[in-house]
Amino acid sequence: MNINTLATKVKPVNETHSIKEAVISLFLANQILKPERFNELIKTSLKEKFQLFEPIIQFQFEVKNPLATSATTPKPEVLNNIGFKFTSFYNGAPATVLQGQNDNLNIRTFISYHTLKYTRWDRFISEYMAIVNSILEFSPEIFLSAISLHYIDQFFWIGEGDIDLSLFFNKDAHSIPNDFFNAKVGQYSIVTERQINETRKYLDRLEIVVDNNQIKPSLTISHNVTQPLSDVISLKEFVNTTEFMDILDKAHAHNKSFLRDLLTEEIRNLINLQPLL
Predict the structure, then answer these.
(1) Most exposed among 14, 127, 166, 235, judged by the fewest C-beta atoms under 10 Å?
(2) Are residues 49 and 156 in the same domain?
(3) Model's pTM, two decimal places?
(4) Domain span at 46
């Protein structure tokens, strides 16, 4: 199928690519102290980058067996100031988000930077480095345990009938089984642990969501690469090293090669997915 015919059936979320959201997350070994104090940054080093600061709250519910206990539903517990969130806007919609959170429910602490207006990797990583260094100038006592790069690609189906998976996915792809194309479920996910060398490994997570709703059918591909560190390390000492950049650059390169293997040549051409030079 040529690209013009394909364009009558498939519409990427953006004009020149299919990336809906890109995220870099730092998983921390220590909790964020007094997250509300980060409000100061929207008045200083981050005032040109973000327009809104919000504290994050979390609702915690206790689920009980109604057969064993009273049928009375316990009230949710509100956890205040468990994190912070900065947002920038473009034409009234969120464009970038920086958030830090002590996620007590999932027993993790992280700082993540999200762009909803992705253009190129070089620009994204440059913006990210400037922001994370502003965070460290304000709060240098951050220790790192893992790094994650997450891409979410989305396509809208504008053809007739249900989404045709064979137009999107390479039947010889290494990351999906052959029976994937005959499956009727709307969600597919797999997590793989891959070895880099004798001491280093990374987690590779793929999720595909097929939504055949009648209003706006869509297909979403979520690909996440997480690199655990062999030891806890000071982010301030690590962030500007070649090793830190190497982890992110290799995660980006892996995402591109992963998608090139996963997607058909026609879809790759439609979204301008070029091989790394």
Answers:
(1) 166
(2) no
(3) 0.91
(4) 31-141
